[in-house]
Structures are given as C-alpha cells and as structure tokens.
Amino acid sequence: MRVPGRFYLSQQLMGTLEEGAVRQLANIATLPGICRNSLAMPDIHWGYGFPIGGVGAFTMDEGIISPGGVGFDINCGVRLITTPLQRSDLGQLKKVLQELYNTIPTGVGTKSCVTVSDHELNRIMTEGARWTIEEGYGTERDLLWCEEQGCIEGADISHVSQKARKRGRPQCGTLGSGNHFLEVQCVEEIFDPEAARTFGIETGQICIMIHCGSRGLGHQICTDHLKVLEGAAKKYRIPLADKQLACAPLTSPEGEAYLSAMACAANYAWANRQMITHLTREVLSRAFSLSTEDMPLVYDVTHNVAKIEEHVVDGTRTTLCVHRKGATRAFGPGSHDLPPGCDAIGQPVIIPGSMGSSSYLLRGTDGAMEKTFGSTCHGAGRVLSRSQAKKTISGDSLQESLGRSGITVLAPSAGSIAEEAPDAYKPSAEVVKVVHEAGISAKVARLNPIGVIKG
DNA sequence: ATGTGC
Predict the structure, then answer these.
(1) pLDDT digits (tens, 9 = 90+) for A412-444
(2) Domain limits at A116?
(3) Is A249 domain-assigned?
(4) What's the CA A30/C1' B3 distance, rounded, in angstroms?
(5) Rounded CA–C1' distance between A217 and B2, in angstroms
(6) What is the CATH number of the domain that holds A9?
C-alpha cells in the first residue's frame, strides 16, 4: 500500500464489513498516484475491483483511471422532485402509481417510448440533460439543479462501440431493474430548516425520487473498455493486486479513451433521468392538474463516476481524478458547481433508502472538502447478495407487510421485490448517522416512501 | 448494474 486506507464506520456497521471489501480498499491504495487515502464510506460492500462505497483520488501526472472505480452502471444516480401535494391529496395513490408504472418502462431490456436516431444519440452522449430540455422534456431550471448541469465535458463518441450504441438507442427514458426505482415519498422530518428552505423542501410535502443509470449503453462501454485497460495495465507495467483493477495512466491514450467514453455514458444517464422526470410530470399533471413549474427538481446526483476536480491537498490546490463508486459528491459551501443560492450551504446530496426505508436529503460540508475529496455515502450497501435475499426472503409476504404499513409496491415479480428487501441492505439511518457525525455531510431532511415502482 | 450465467 502506498497510502493508508480509511473507513467511515460505526460499531454497528463494522459488524457487516466484509473481509473482501477491506481487501479491496487496500488494493486501491496500491495503485500509482493514489492521493492521501483510499476511502470507504459507511455503506461499503464488496464490488467489482473497487468496493461499492469506495473513493479513490489520483494525481493527474502519476495517477490512473479504472473502470472498476466507476462501476458497470456508469452514472447510476438519483434525483428528487417536489410537488405541491400533501399526503391527504393521495387518496388515489394506487391509481396514480399504476399510471406511473404503465407510463415509465421498467425492467431488464425494456424499450423507451422513443428510439432515438444515431444523430440524436450523439447529441445525448455529448450534451446530456441539455438535449432532453431542448427536445421539450423539461426546463432550463432543471439543468441548474443538477450536478454538472447534467453534462460532463470531454465526451468523445468515437470511443463508444456500435454495440454500445445499439443497446443505448432504444433505452433512453427507461428505469431498468435491480435497485433502480421510482418512489413516491413524503417529507417526514426537517433537520436543517434554512437548507431545506433553500432546497425547496417542507414537512408533509409529497416528492418523487428517481434512481436509475445509463442502462445497456453504460454497461457495454464498461465491458468494452475493461478489455482494453486489461491490456494497458500490462503495457504500462502497472502491477495489479486484482485483475478487476484494470486501469491505465490518466495521461495515456487508453485512459483518455475510457474517460471520454465514460463521459458519454454519464451524459446519457442524465438525459435518461430527465426523460423519466418528464414522463412522471405528465402523469402527475394529468392526475392533479399541475404544471411543470409546480414540480421543480430539488437536485440530481451521480453515484458512479470518475471526475477531474481540484482539491486542496497539503495546502496546495491539486487537480485530481476522483473515482466515486457507490459514493456521492458532497461539495461544501463556497465550492465550484453549486446550484443557485447554495454558496453558503453547500450542494444538495440525495441518499436513497432501500425499499420501504427512509431516504435522506443532506448537504455538502467543509469537512467533506477537507477529508474525503468532497464525498459522502450513497445509501445502498448490500448485506445480502441477490441470490441470498431471494432464498431467505419471501417477496409476496414482504409486499403484503409493506402494504400494511402503507407502502404500495408495484414490481414485475415477487423475486424482484425480495432482492431489494430492506433486510438485504445496511440500515440507511445508521449510514447517514455516520456521515453526519463524521462531518462529511449534514442532514437536511428525511423522507418516507409511500409508493414504489421497480423493474 | 446487465439483451443477468461457463
């Protein structure tokens, strides 16, 4: 190890820490150009190469870029939309939820209501959410309240394969499967009234949370470039503690090619979430006579990406490539890329809970800038694998018991519900408690689910 | 996560 690994944990979460995940954090610390620490957020669990909940920052001159530090679902992320509705307005919740389920394509391999042309796909990959807005699926304001305004620079479509393009073209505007979901939530508790006011959140309000990523396009880009970077690691004589850490120097053509293709997938994911936002607003507009302006975006964050950012290291401003895999940017007050009016508060940070448990709205802090390269948890750390969850949990009885506690779940099968059972995940409240107490983000609000649609 | 797996 070139630097120490550092874990953010509590006694309780230490109990769910896997040996494999610890080894993976150590492996990150062996990579060239690793800066200060490899970092584990409290929702850490065993992943491909990097643990999920892992953060690694690398210097531009000596450092590397690794697809294993981003994940297969490039720019898997989450956004939160508010409505003027209260819980009591949702007498027809089940009807509206069914309407959302019918309107938003969910599940593996599903197709969007629009298949975009090759030219449009190029624009989606280079312009991100802006393309969606220009097509009439949202407002300029949506872009202001989105990390990077929904577009990472440096996207180069020449590094995206035909196979990836073919998979991506029919999927923009689809939710996907696994832990991806759309949730109708209610704001239960405000911890920081000033920040909540700035973010446009109040107690009792109905909100919509959307969690999804770059679908088959991002998956294929990851697969394609992993192969190239396995060769590149050998070529540049980078010793790998694990083959899954395939990587290339940030300054190499192979490294630059992955970064530019990764940006294409990240931009696609932002367009995807914006498209789903549009479909959601259409359904709610019809059901409750609301306008788009009645349903503003609180914010949109990515959980799986590597980005070139400036951070202060030992008192010096340094340009780094920050890998966040199952981790969220949590830029504090005075940082670059904050939404309007947030200079004194920091960026909004959205932490989805597992199905049936609370989600949180946090804000970025000075502590994150000082200790974690402006990063915090992402909220969904598994304790049971999918197959373990399916074996030990009955999806049918879970759906029933959630129903009894006022949470409606629409899903394609009992198995898909079992896989995402709250018991298959680390408790979101404990994860958030750790990042709040460590000062790497601060609690703003807690939201409870009342309706879930999932693939 | 994924047109889910050797």
Answers:
(1) 999 999 999 999 998 999 999 999 999 999 999
(2) 5-383+425-454
(3) yes
(4) 36
(5) 10
(6) 3.90.1860.10
